[in-house]
Amino acid sequence: MCFYLLNLFFSKVLFEVFCIKTFIMQTPDELYKDLFVDVQLKKIFPDNKTFVDCTPKRKPESIVADYERLENPSNEDIKKFVEENFIMPPESAPGYHTDIKDNVIEHIEELWPVLKRSADKPVEGSSLIALPYPYIVPGGRFREVFYWDSYFTMLGLAESKQWDIIENMIENFAYLINEFGFIPNGNRSYFLSRSQPPYFSCMIELLATYKGNETYSKYQSALQKEYDYWMDKTHATKHVVHLDNETILNRYYDQLDKPREEAYWQDSTLSNECKGDPCMLYAHLRAACESGWDFSGRWFKDGKTFETIQTTNLIPVDLNCLLYHLELSLGKAAALNNFIKLSDDYNAKARQRKAAINQYFYDETDGWYYDYDISEKKLNNQKTIAGITPFFFNIPPENYITKAAAILQNEFLKDGGVVTTLINTEQQWDWPNGWAPLQWIAIKGLENYNQKELAAELAHRWAKLNIKVYRNTGKLMEKYNVIDTNLTAGGGEYPSQDGFGWTNGVLLKILKTYGLS
Predict the structure, then answer these.
(1) Percentage of residues in the chain with pLDDT exceeding 70?
(2) pLDDT score of 172 more than 70
(3) Which residues contact 129 (CB under 8 A, 6 or more apart)?
(4) Run of H or E residues at 363
(5) Does residue 3 have a pLDDT over 80?
């Protein structure tokens, strides 16, 4: 108990330190003011992420002062000014050219060092949060570590016996937790207002398969701080939702309600087109980014349009499954460190959340798990592949799998794998696209409940599609069209990216697990 009280004290201190740090580490809009706005709104670069990832060649205040002296600069003038005063973001794989191999495993193994980044050095005015250890980036426009991507990348790294880089990445995440009180979306200053799906405890579980239970003991403090963040104990977030006097569940909620800096033009333009409060629109957009599903009809009240986005009104089933796993992990860590009362407390919290997941997210009529609509006080009507997540974490009773497996097979399973949702909104997290992390969650969820034949079929279809695209293009992509395997995936705010960390990780895990190549 003394440890617990001491940890609460340090959490409070951490929160105060966080306020200081985020003030010191200013974001691009704070640093570059009118220059930032002009570059983003005038689309000086096709991708809004380009400028916010630039590195200044000199002090930001000097750059701003010089820009303010320019009179009515044209777009060409602004671009020239940026190029003279900033270092452009590097290519994700400079000088690398794919030599298409028959064995895709060799290609993935060859890509690990290509996607690896060394420990960073802080640069004044850069948005990059310097990390003390090497890490793997997703690839393409994603030049930094991303939170939930990293767990699925680690699945492949583990198959490659790359335990050192896995541990380094976990150390980086623990560093971010200790520095800022949580793991941001990615190691960029403009991500410091939100996190992503909390897979840190799953990373600890993975590393423990190699290093043993000492892993839980070592990272107990980091796990606790991660939990405190999601339970609104250390930050001004609104993740916690009280459904009744006893039931506490969680939602996604960014701390800011302004346009995202890395998508400033898109958010500003959308707010001009949509009716209603722009601040609420921005809050819902940012919360959807914290979910990792940016964007999807899952978050739209009408299932179709951005104007009805309502992310913060929904309690996501998958988020609460992750927090259930985090509570179990905290219980295990506390027990290993001989904090028996604390362990009992977290195991009780996990039991309560498990019961709430089965009570509030499960639809007995069709046998699927849905998100919960807070304002309507009922299940949301958007059926998504997130409904299989409880099976990944062994939450449902055994008999629930029969209906769920039938729904997955009859509605979600397509030629190339499982589709994300059953609606086509032209958003990237909807029909016809499939994503690597969701394939693995579905495969493992089916395996957990002895649906081995269906799990293997899904694994084979996804691997076949990945390999087909690789042999045609030399690339492993961020996402895939699983409906028509002859077409590329589309939708979203940017072109489909290649690289790609979590695709590499999940594909290698599948190939090794099922003996494919």
Answers:
(1) 95
(2) yes
(3) 25, 120, 176, 184, 187, 188, 189, 192
(4) strand 362-363
(5) no
Evaluated on CA atoms 270, 142, 325, 195, the torsion sign reads negative
**Band of the pLDDT at 7, cuts 50, 70, 90?**
very low
Strands 55-56 and 86-87, bridge-based pairing: antiparallel
- The CA angle 199-205-206, to the nearest 5 degrees, is 90
**Any idea which residues carry the catalytic annotation?**
294, 478
Instruction: Give CA–CA dist 417/459, Å, rounded.
Output: 7
Phi first, then psi: what are they for 241, rounded to 5°? -125, 125
* Separation between Cα atoms, residue 474 and residue 427, nearest integer Å: 25
* C-alpha to C-alpha distance for 175 and 168, rounded to whole angstroms: 10
Once rounded to an integer, what is the mean pLDDT over residues 487-511? 86
Compute the radius of gyration of the chain from its Cα atoms: 22
Of the two residues 108 and 490, the one the predictor is more confident about is 108
Read off the tokens for 267: 């958010």
User: How many Å apart are CA 48 and CA 262, to the nearest integer?
Assistant: 5
Contacts of 271 (CB under 8 A, 6+ apart): 259, 278, 281, 282
Residues 432/477, Cβ–Cβ less than 8 Å: no
Question: What is the pLDDT, as a whole number, of residue 339?
Answer: 98
- Are 420 and 296 a contacting pair, CB within 8 Å? yes
d(CA 413, CA 221): 40
Beta-sheet strands, E only, within 264-355: 314-315
What gap in Å lies between CA 391 and CA 285, rounded to an integer? 28
Strand blocks (E) in 81-184? 86-87, 116-117, 135-136
Q: Cα(396)–Cα(390) distance, rounded to whole angstroms? A: 6
DSSP lists the bridge partners of residue 431 as none
Q: Which DSSP string corresponds to 375-390?
A: TTTEE-S--BGGGGHH
Q: How far, in Å, CA of 297 to CA of 382, rounded?
A: 8
CA 310 to CA 285: how far, in whole Å?
9
Write the pLDDT tens digit of every residue in 245-285. 889 999 999 999 999 999 999 999 999 999 889 999 999 99
For residue range 185-194, list pLDDT tens digits in order. Answer: 999 999 999 9
Mean pLDDT of 444-473: 97
pLDDT of residue 95: 67
| Measured torsion, CA atoms of residues 481, 487, 488, 491, in degrees rounded to the nearest 10 | -70
On whether the CB atoms of residues 226 and 198 are closer than 8 A, the answer is yes
What is the token pair recorded at 114?
């290509």
Q: Rounded to an integer, what distance in angstroms lies between the CA atom of residue 495 and that of residue 54?
A: 20
Q: What is the pLDDT of residue 494?
A: 64
Supply angle C-alpha 86, 92, 94, rounded to 5. Answer: 90
pLDDT at 15 over 90: no
d(CA 9, CA 491): 46
- Specify the length of the chain in residues: 517
